[in-house]
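Hello,

Our lab assistant flagged a job as stuck in the queue for most of the afternoon. It eventually completed. Since we weren't sure the result was trustworthy after the delay, we are filing this so someone can double-check. Below is the sequence as submitted and the structure that was eventually returned. Let us know if re-running is recommended.
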Amino acid sequence: MVKSRNPRIAVFYRDFGKFSGIFINDYLACARDRAKKQDYVHIKSKHVPEMECHPEFQSQRLLFNRRSVFRLRQIIAMGGGGFSMEPENPLLDLYILGQSEKQRPKVCFVPTASGDADNYITRFYKAFESHDCISSHLSLFCPPTRDLEAYVMDKDIIYVGGGNTKNLMALWKEWGLDIILRKAWQQGKIMAGVSAGSICWFEEGVTDSYGSGLESLKTLGFLKGSNCPHYDGEEDRRPAYKKFIGSGRISGGFAADDGAALHYIDEELVKALSSRPKAKAYHVCKTEGKVRETVVETMYLG
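-- returned structure --
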């Protein structure tokens, strides 16, 4: 079994209004204590030896805003991977766990898109029992409570599974879960997911929810633009995404291969990462009448 006690890397710093890097969370306790006494915390990089090898941190002064540090709006959108696609490769799941400031975060699996498939839920618990977290799931076919908002707000990480994105959207809206999740995200709960659980956070995406062929679909809109998962895993995904963007059916956005993920903080893409050496993320948009695909620098977690 693989234990998940990797160093927690969670807090990003701002450089001229944009997120520019990563701060080792082991040092956050000191910053938290100081932040209670003042609005801003300054830490010189020379006090953080692990950063010195990275040129991006050379001579940097890290500026922490107390409000943004402790209520970061985080979304980690996986094109494919995680326990459901890579049961022997926990790198993406461990990364998600590592973004919580909690030593033992509460992780809630939301399998709506699969119709709350029993096998999917069982695989989630089997995978996460070997990690340092508290696992639970939220079923809309057999709700754990009448007060779904209180149930969600008690968690640290919401992990949305794959399946039929259109059905997911319909059920979430019927139960008001879309509104609850937005509130949870705005209050600092980490949103994550794979496939349908990736598409759902954007304004629109490419889905196979209709049975035959790929279609565009309007989604929650927590993040601007569109999303396409399984970019290298399903042969029709890449051409369909480019076609939809080229025709104006959907706006430009980001795609991710199986094994790749997009990490957003406060609606900005701060990092692309992967559990496979060759998995990548891509920015796809229409410029001067042509659809252009640009590879996003992707950090391999292995």
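-- support follow-up --
The delay was a queue issue, not a problem with the job. The result is valid. The mean pLDDT is 83. The chain has nine helices and 20 strands.
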